[in-house]
């Protein structure tokens, strides 16, 4: 049994000119890569195995991140299933003068723990502690089923958590 906090990965870095779009804001693909790196560290800390990105379930580019920003990417395992892990990532930027942090984006990735040959292997269970961790844990099965249905890997008829939303 492990806790979400044990997996927490925090990466802080600047936005440089080579990482921006024509509006001088952080290029979306660069942010996806930063989130993928932080999420893979969180997944590895929880599972202590090789991990691979199985799916990007959700990304919200809510707020543009300007050139020169200090960007902090925080990733934590929200739920462990049999071999897969849901990772929630929060992205923050900080005001240069006040130092105040503002939430810029968030995302949800799925990683799978694998052996040396790339075959999925079981991961330890997780026990959420805080209210936010409990909320994210509760919603994770619904998001997993949605991702599997969209990927054509689950029959919608078997997606019990999704059906419960609409009934
Ligand atoms: C991810 C990968 C290991 C899954 O292999 P697979 O043959 O589909 O294995 P399984 O069907 O047993 O699925 C393994 C787990 O992944 C989950 N999974 C697979 N696809 C998923 C998806 N699209 N969304 C959410 N979960 C997914 C399954 O539900 C299962 O979870 P569980 O064991 O916790 O219940 C395999 O597809 C792979 O190696 N992909 C390439 C990964 C990679 O290279 N990533 C970097 C991209 S550049």
TrEMBL record:
GO BP annotations, alphabetical order: acyl-CoA metabolic process; fatty acid catabolic process
Keywords: Hydrolase
SUPFAM superfamilies: Thioesterase/thiol ester dehydrase-isomerase
Transmembrane residue ranges: none
UniProt GO cellular component terms: cytosol
Pfam families reported in the protein's UniProt record: 4HBT
A GO term for molecular function: long-chain fatty acyl-CoA hydrolase activity
Domain HotDog ACOT-type intervals: 5-117
InterPro entries associated with the record: Cytosol_ACT, HOTDOG_ACOT, HotDog_dom_sf, Thioestr_dom
PANTHER family: ACYL COENZYME A THIOESTER HYDROLASE, CYTOSOLIC ACYL COENZYME A THIOESTER HYDROLASE
Family, similarity comment: Belongs to the acyl coenzyme A hydrolase family.
Identification of the protein by name: Acyl-CoA hydrolase
Lineage: Bacteria, Pseudomonadati, Bacteroidota, Flavobacteriia, Flavobacteriales
């Amino acid at each position: 049994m492990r806790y979400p906090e044990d997996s927490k990965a925090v990466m802080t870095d600047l936005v440089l000119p080579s990482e921006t779009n024509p509006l001088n804001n952080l290029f979306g693909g660069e942010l996806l890569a930063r989130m993928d790196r932080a999420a893979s560290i969180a997944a590895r800390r929880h599972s202590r195995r090789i991990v691979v990105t199985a799916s990007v379930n959700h990304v919200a580019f809510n707020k543009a991140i300007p050139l020169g920003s200090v960007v902090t990417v925080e990733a934590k395992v929200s739920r462990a299933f049999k071999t897969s892990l849901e990772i929630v990532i929060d992205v923050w930027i900080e005001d240069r003068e006040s130092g105040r942090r503002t939430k810029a984006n968030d995302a949800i990735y799925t990683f799978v723990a694998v052996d040396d040959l790339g075959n999925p292997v079981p991961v330890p269970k997780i026990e959420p502690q805080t209210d936010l961790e409990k909320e994210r844990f509760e919603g994770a099965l619904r998001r997993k089923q949605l991702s599997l249905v969209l990927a054509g890997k689950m029959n919608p008829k078997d997606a019990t958590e999704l059906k419960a939303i609409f009934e």
